[in-house]
Amino acid sequence: MTTLHSSLGPNPRLVRMFAAEKGLEEGKDFDRVHYDIITGENRQSGSYLAKNPLGTIPTLELDDGTCLTESWPICEFIEESHPAPNLFGETPRERAEVRKWARLFDQEVVVPMTMGFRAGGGRPMFEPRMSVVSAEAGAELAAMSDEKWRMFDGVLGDSNHFALGRFTFADLLVFCFANFGFTVGWKLPEGTDNLARFVSAHNARPSAAVWKEAE
Predict the structure, then answer these.
(1) Of 14-18, 42-46, 145-149, the least confident
(2) Beta partners for 31?
(3) What is the pTM of this model?
(4) Which of 24, 69, 133, 164 has the most Cβ atoms closer than 10 angstroms to its Cβ?
């Protein structure tokens, strides 16, 4: 059976929510193995590093032993393997629209947000494991991320969807990284009431239960 190697964090839960939105069930459609990233289990396990030498999570291990890494490509693989309900768009134009917003969010918010966290509140955990920027640079990156959160708030306006007028991968990506922030004490920056409404609305999705689980 296909196995999802998972943990806490926005990227593993992005994949788990995506699978749930597709109607796929853990234990029925795929198995899930959980790793304790706080203790660095994923970077110490020889069996896991053989599947993903970078030690990052998630990894989707297919029945034939192929191991897919990185949350976005894993979600695209699930989309192509299980086309309905559609979350990336049904036409080339629709897919380009969804990927546009996902790409912008990934580059303009996720990168500075995660680098800022690793250099600030997450420094005790990350500094022994990887290169991190200075605390001062981390604060600047966090401020850059907040600025882009406000930009996305303006794009969202009074809608609860970034593309196609319906729930897509772009919405899921934004939702998961907001919820990740909440778990580490982060708050949406001032001037993002639209995003606060967006997060509240999508918290009601059954798939969002993964953010309420104790692991």
Answers:
(1) 42-46
(2) 3
(3) 0.94
(4) 164
Assess contact for 202 and 175: CB atoms under 8 A. Answer: yes
Tokens (6 digits) for 75: 């979600």
How far, in Å, CA of 205 to CA of 211, rounded?
11
Q: Note if the bond before 58 is cis, omega within 30 degrees.
A: yes
Yes or no: say if 192 and 155 are a contact pair by the CB < 8 Å rule: no
Per mean pLDDT, which range of 129-133, 177-181, 192-196 is the poorest? Answer: 129-133
Q: Assess contact for 139 and 116: CB atoms under 8 A.
A: yes
Angle among Cα 94, 10, 156 to the nearest 5 degrees reads 45
In the chain the first and final C-alpha atoms are separated, in Å, by 22
> What tokens were used for 203?
């918290």
Provide the angle, in degrees to the nearest 10, between the axes of the packed helices 193-202 and 169-183: 100
Q: Tally the C-alpha atoms within 13 A of residue 192's C-alpha that lie toward its C-beta.
A: 19
- Is-contact 113 176, C-beta < 8 A? no
Per-residue pLDDT of 30-56, as tens digits, reads 999 999 988 889 988 999 999 999 999
